[in-house]
Structures are given as structure tokens and as C-alpha cells.
């Protein structure tokens, strides 16, 4: 990315539901400045820009051609992630996208290859792994509080997003489903905590062929289901640790911890990886109760968009913590779990990635480092 950028100028493509979360964060980050928004629905982009002084509503093509835009924040639906990312890269712009990196690992590999050839940087959500929840758990593991990690469990159970999302169609077609929608939070967290994955075993099913939209102008409309809606997998990490993952749009609820990490001398309860914060609990070998660990690492009061700040703050030539390599590896892992589910065979993971660097305890206001080291 050349010299570190004092201010990285951002253009957003895609003005759907998720944009509100980014718009609540970007103004507080002094490394970033939003200058333009675009959407296939021009009126929607204009409505967003109208509430943001100095931000222009452009067509997608105009945004890609705009010299003021240094990085494209890609908030389109998963099926369009690769197309938009490649257009931005072709225009010489950095890219940060919502998860997953692309609809398929093959498309994601094309994005990373194009970025490498163009000399631009790729980042990708989820950046929740940079918050105090996951990072405090990471610090506990790195400090040896549970000994050598042996296993993990990751559980996400809900009855489906059509209950609240006004346009949930993309959740129920190939490229959607609970694993590719929610799995990035869990798999990215597991790789951050335990390192990359070398092989997987999976099983999957889907309970209903139709779903009924529960909110918005399409409430009551029935949509078809053509992808797996309950997925189980075992991830075999390069370290030897085993992670069991269950992702479901078919269940009602669960009391299981979102993520648990078990080691030779202790166990950790890790908060919801779809959040930035939350309590980390530790139970040491021989203890009869859990203890809550003090917050010791991660971006304090983080919210969606800190991955962009982290990217802008990354040293030249270094991979962002929420970077393309991690996003690609997580996508291949998830895709391979589904492949295994349909073949009944263990699937080797071709890619790997560095375990992302730990985040010291950082308060976003002024990026003040409170504890630890960069």
C-alpha cells in the first residue's frame, strides 16, 4: 500500500441493511474518510448521501473511476462480491468487503491474484475478531492459561434470518446457508485462536424446501430453499487441535456457549464472535468455578469498520489482520466442509494462512495503545 496513509478515502458500493453499522463507525475513525456511495438502486445511494455532508452519490462505474476513492468498501450481496472487488482492483483501488470474500473459493482466488498483480490490498470482514472478546481469549491462550489447546466447539443455532430480513432470498441459495453466512465469524475466530486448518469432515441437511418472509413489504411471501440449512463439521487444525462446528437455520435456540476452547490445563468460554466484546471465562484444572478474565487485548468499543482502520494502519507490505489471506482460508474451509458433507470423505485444505497478529489493548479514540505491544 506504499507509505502508511494518514487518511484512507473510502467509497462504498452497496447501500443495503449492513451499511448503517459501518456508517455509525466510520466518522469516529481518524484514519478513514467516506467520500462516495453507490448502489444499483440510485435512489437508495442518494438517500444515504443526503444524510452525509460531503459524501457524493455516484453510479458504481463512476465510483470506480473516481480518483478520490482509494479503497472500495464492498457491501453488496455475496454473489456480487468478486465482480465488484475485481472492478475495484482493475481501477487500482484497495478493497475491503463484507464476508464471505466471494461466493466461491475459486472466485476468491481470482480476487487475491488480481490484487497481488495490481499491488493493492484486500481486507475482508468479519472484523469482530479484532474486538476485546476474541482478542482477550487469544491473549489467554498465548499466555498459557489453558496449556496446550486440544479442542474447540463452535455453535450457532437459530430458526433462520427470514424472520427479520426483508429480502432474505440470498440466505437460501448456494453461496448462502448458515455456514457461509454465519460461519465466517466462527471459522475466522477459530483460526485466530488456534491457527490454520489442514483438513475437514462435514455433514449437512436441510429441513424445509420453503421459507416465509416475516417482515418488510414482502412479509408473507414464500421463497424456495436450495441450500443446506444445518451443517456440522470437524476442523483439524495444523496444530493438531480439533474444532467441532455446528451452524443451523433449522433449530429454535441453544444454551451452548458460542465458542469453547479446551486445553490440557484449562477451558475458555469465548463470547459470541458476531460481537466485538463480551466476557471471557476461564476454568483452570482443579478449580470448581469459572472466573471472568479482565479485558486484556483488542480494540475497545469496537464496531463494524475497525477492520478498515486496522488495514489503514498496517505497515507497508504486511497482511492486515482482517485480510484476504484469512478470508480466503476461512472460505475454503467452509466450502470444504460442504464438499465433505456431500461426498462423505475427509477433504484436505489446500490453502493456509498466518495466524493473524494479536491485537494489543487499543482504545479507538486516537488509536491509543493501553496495554500489550503492537
From TrEMBL:
Q: Where is the Gfo/Idh/MocA-like oxidoreductase N-terminal domain?
A: 9-123
Q: Which Pfam families does the record associate with it?
A: GFO_IDH_MocA, GFO_IDH_MocA_C3
The source's domain of life comes to Bacteria
Looking at the UniProt entry, the stretches that span the membrane are none
Q: Which GO terms label this protein's molecular function in UniProt?
A: nucleotide binding; oxidoreductase activity
Q: Which UniProt keywords apply?
A: NAD, Oxidoreductase
| InterPro entries noted in UniProt | Gfo/Idh/MocA-like_OxRdtase_N, Gfo/Idh/MocA_oxidrdct_glycsds, GFO_IDH_MocA-like_dom, NAD(P)-bd_dom_sf
Question: What is the protein name for this chain?
Answer: Oxidoreductase
Q: Which residues form the GFO/IDH/MocA-like oxidoreductase domain?
A: 135-268
SUPFAM superfamilies recorded for this chain? Glyceraldehyde-3-phosphate dehydrogenase-like, C-terminal domain, NAD(P)-binding Rossmann-fold domains
Amino acid at each position: 500500500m506504499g507509505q502508511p496513509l494518514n487518511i484512507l478515502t473510502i467509497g462504498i458500493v452497496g447501500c443495503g441493511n449492513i451499511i448503517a453499522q459501518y456508517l455509525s463507525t466510520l466518522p469516529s475513525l481518524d484514519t478513514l474518510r467516506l467520500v462516495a456511495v453507490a448502489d444499483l438502486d440510485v435512489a437508495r445511494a442518494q438517500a444515504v448521501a443526503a444524510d452525509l455532508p460531503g459524501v457524493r452519490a455516484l453510479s458504481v462505474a463512476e465510483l470506480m473511476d473516481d480518483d478520490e476513492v482509494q479503497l472500495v468498501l464492498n457491501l453488496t450481496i455475496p454473489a456480487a462480491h468478486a465482480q465488484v472487488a475485481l472492478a475495484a482492483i482493475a481501477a487500482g483501488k484497495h478493497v475491503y468487503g463484507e464476508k464471505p470474500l466471494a461466493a466461491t473459493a475459486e472466485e476468491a482466488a481470482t480476487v487475491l491474484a488480481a490484487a497481488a498483480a495490481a499491488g493493492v490490498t484486500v481486507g475482508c470482514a468479519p472484523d469482530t475478531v479484532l474486538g476485546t472478546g476474541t482478542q482477550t481469549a487469544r491473549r489467554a491462550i498465548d499466555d498459557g492459561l489453558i496449556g496446550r489447546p486440544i479442542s474447540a466447539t463452535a455453535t450457532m443455532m437459530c430458526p433462520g434470518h427470514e424472520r427479520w430480513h426483508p429480502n432474505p432470498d440470498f440466505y437460501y441459495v448456494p453461496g448462502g446457508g448458515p455456514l457461509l453466512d454465519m460461519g465466517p465469524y466462527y471459522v475466522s475466530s477459530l483460526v485466530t485462536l488456534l491457527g490454520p486448518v489442514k483438513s475437514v469432515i462435514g455433514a449437512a441437511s436441510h429441513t424445509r424446501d420453503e421459507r416465509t418472509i416475516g417482515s418488510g413489504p414482502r412479509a408473507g411471501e414464500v421463497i424456495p430453499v436450495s441450500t443446506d440449512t444445518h451443517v456440522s463439521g470437524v476442523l483439524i487444525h495444523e496444530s493438531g487441535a480439533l474444532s467441532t462446528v455446528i451452524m443451523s437455520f433449522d433449530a429454535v435456540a441453544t444454551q451452548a456457549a458460542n465458542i469453547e476452547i479446551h486445553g490440557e490445563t484449562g477451558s475458555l468460554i469465548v463470547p459470541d464472535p458476531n460481537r466485538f466484546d463480551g466476557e471471557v471465562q476461564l476454568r483452570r484444572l482443579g478449580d470448581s468455578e469459572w472466573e471472568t478474565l479482565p479485558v486484556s487485548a483488542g480494540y475497545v468499543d469496537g464496531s463494524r469498520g475497525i477492520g478498515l482502520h486496522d488495514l489503514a494502519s498496517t505497515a507497508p507490505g504486511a497482511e492486515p489482520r482482517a485480510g484476504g489471506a484469512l478470508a480466503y482460508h476461512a472460505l475454503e474451509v467452509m466450502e470444504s466442509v460442504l464438499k465433505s458433507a456431500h461426498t462423505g470423505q475427509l477433504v484436505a485444505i489446500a490453502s493456509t494462512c498466518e495466524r493473524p497478529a494479536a491485537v494489543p489493548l487499543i482504545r479507538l479514540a486516537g488509536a491509543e495503545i493501553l496495554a500489550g505491544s503492537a
